[in-house]
Amino acid sequence: MPLVTGKELLTKADKGGYAVGAFNCNNMEIIQAIVAAAEAEEAPVIIQASQGAIKYAGLDYIVGLVKTAAQKSKAPIALHLDHGTSFNQVVQCIRSGFTSVMIDGSKLPLEENIALTKKVVEMAQAVGVSTEAEIGKIGGTEDDISVTDKEAMLSDPEEAGIFVRETGVDSIAIAIGTAHGQYKFEPQLDFERLAKIRSLINIPIVMHGSSGVSDQDVQKAISLGVSKVNIDTNIREAFVKGVREVVMNNPKEIDPRKILGPAREAMTAIVREKIRIFGSSQKA
């Protein structure tokens, strides 16, 4: 089926009390794994491309691969720009076929973040593309974007309310204690802050840096209003583990298909597991 918007998927999730998994892609095998998992679980999914993915695979390749996968699938799929850093990049992604975009102005002062986000929202909504923005800083590193522990700040509930009202954005990523990348220590999520933010806004909430968060904490966050959960690191870990096992067991193997095939299966398994945790299985 054709690509759908992120807003379409998240509105249903918000009303249904579950979350849609947003999985980052970097190559064909990852995209195939995400779609295979969505079909097996009969679940909606969001396939995301970050700055690093676009540089590595190329914008046209990512769009072409995802569109081809979506057209052959019965699962509803959205193609989302993860952590867009400029208005021009957002425009380029929309022109290329993305159905959802994130503009990340979280490092800017609140007023500048609002102005940039509002500009993106007005443009994107005019062509039927959904939008995500971020308030507060989520720690860790994701491709070209890095936030140190000292810089990381939790989202202010009152500012979140103002931000949503002023921008008209479709969904908002908030900082409640998660971080991008692999965790050094078990994250301590601020559920009280999440509940407060939810009481002040009426749009889907996004949780970034979710790969190292316990299943119980993810599900609690979903019960408090999170409708989109981003996963990247867990997919990378499954990919590398799958490749490493083949190479270690068969060091003379030179067939890429026999090396990458098991990695694809491992990624499919982890995506299916996450879909069930998020409660989106059978929600296609």
Give a quick precis of the structure.
The chain is α/β, with parallel strands linked by helices and 284 residues long. The chain is built from 11 helices and 11 strands.
Task: Write structural notes for this entry.
This protein is an alpha/beta fold. It has 11 helices and 11 strands. The protein has one domain: Alpha-Beta Barrel (TIM Barrel), CATH 3.20.20.70. Helices cover 50% and strands 18% of the residues. It has an 8-stranded parallel β-barrel with strand order 1-2-3-4-5-8-10-11, surrounded by 10 helices. β4 (100-103), α6 (110-126) and β5 form a beta-alpha-beta unit. α3 (51-57) crosses α4. The longest helix has 23 residues, at 256-278. The chain is globular, with a radius of gyration of 18 Å.
Strand neighbour order, sheet with most strands? 1-2-3-4-5-8-10-11
Low-confidence stretches: none
Q: Let me know the CATH homologous superfamily.
A: Aldolase class I
Series of H and E elements: HEHEHHEHEHEEEHEEHEHEHH
- How much β-strand is present in the residues? 15-25%
N-C termini distance: 12 Å
Radius of gyration, Cα only, in angstroms? Answer: 18 Å
Q: Which helices and strands appear, and what pairs or packs with what?
A:
Layout: H1 6-16, E1 20-24, H2 28-41, E2 45-49, H3 51-57, H4 59-71, E3 77-84, H5 87-96, E4 100-103, H6 110-126, E5 130-135, E6 139-142, E7 145-147, H7 157-167, E8 171-174, E9 179-180, H8 191-200, E10 205-207, H9 215-223, E11 226-231, H10 233-249, H11 256-278
Parallel strand pairs: 1-2, 1-11, 2-3, 3-4, 4-5, 5-8, 6-9, 8-10, 10-11
Antiparallel strand pairs: 6-7
